[in-house]
Design goal:
This protein is an alpha/beta fold and about 280 residues long. The chain is about 35% helix and about 20% strand. Strands 6-5-4-9-12-14-15 form a 7-stranded parallel beta sheet, sandwiched between helices.
Length: about 280
């Protein structure tokens, strides 16, 4: 905690305190609840409420015992933190994407948090008889394991705790033995020029294998990923059969994709949830 934080006067109003907390986190990169409580002369419960409000405004990201900054230069976030960000948008995106999956298909789900929500929607459906799910996500494999009518194929490799994923070339052999109809992949960044990109090369490598194996590739990306470019590209834009996103996606990019013949479903926009895939008419 910086000296600036320790010199904050006690007794400030809640909104003013939250503004100062946000500045502290932005300047130092992180802050602990106990230190903030001491600096402001309030309880830890009050600070946690402040951090919850600030996270809702996307000023900070809550972590166990404190908060970290939201800057684009931050390192990859642990899975449990990413799962909480834009949760409502991801749930809506996942519901629409799950509507594109039919019984008897073989699909790929990556280790993104949105893909986990897709798996949960699939689990909620009761009529599966022969769905095959290939994944490198430990969470997704655990979610779907033993569910009637669903076969889970887990890719092999090294376990990354940050994403609860399995990475490395050992998983490539599965794709030489399984015909994959559809792949659903998340991304850290999405631009029309670069396509889908990830912050970690290891994750990008396994996603390239997923994209290469699938007949149709669908991006599942909330609006915060649009217009951003992470370090490792894994899927060209023209390789996409469609994109599932939310109503916050930039209109110009959405229009450009549709001009390219790539279907876009924007959940949360009236009349556009398109769980039946109506927005994908004409997509490749």
């Amino acid at each position: 905690m910086t000296a600036k934080a320790s010199n904050v006067p006690h007794g400030v109003f809640a909104r003013e305190r939250q503004q100062q907390i946000a500045r502290i986190v932005e300047e130092t990169g992180r802050a602990r609840v106990t230190e903030l409580a001491g600096s402001f002369g309030v309880s830890a419960v009050t600070i946690r409420k402040d951090l919850l409000i600030l996270e809702g405004k996307r000023r900070v990201i809550r972590t166990h015992g404190g908060a970290i900054a939201t800057g684009d230069s931050r390192p990859e976030l642990a899975f449990e933190i990413r799962e909480r960000l834009q949760r409502d948008e991801k749930v809506g995106i996942a519901a629409a994407a799950a509507g594109r999956i039919g019984d008897g298909e073989s699909i790929v789900l990556d280790a993104s948090t949105t893909a986990l929500y897709i798996a949960r929607h699939l689990k909620a459906r009761e009529a599966w008889h022969g769905l095959t799910v290939v994944t490198n996500s430990i969470r997704i494999a655990s979610e779907l394991a033993g569910h009637p009518g669903v076969t889970v194929l887990m890719l092999g490799g090294r376990v990354r705790w940050e994403a609860l994923s399995v990475v490395g070339p050992l998983g490539d052999g599965v794709f030489r033995r399984v015909n994959v109809q559809k792949a659903f992949v998340g991304a850290a960044g999405f631009t029309i020029e670069a396509g889908l990109s990830d912050a970690m090369e290891e994750e990008a490598q396994i996603k390239r294998s997923m994209v290469g194996a699938a007949h149709e590739v669908y991006a599942v990306v909330d609006h915060t990923k649009w217009g951003r470019m992470a370090s490792a590209t894994f899927c060209r834009t023209d390789r996409l059969a469609g994109v599932f996103t939310d109503s916050g996606a930039p209109a110009a990019m959405v229009a450009a994709l549709r001009e390219m013949g790539i279907g876009v479903t924007e959940t949360g926009r009236p009349g556009s949830a398109a769980v039946d895939g109506r927005d994908f008419q004409g997509a490749t």
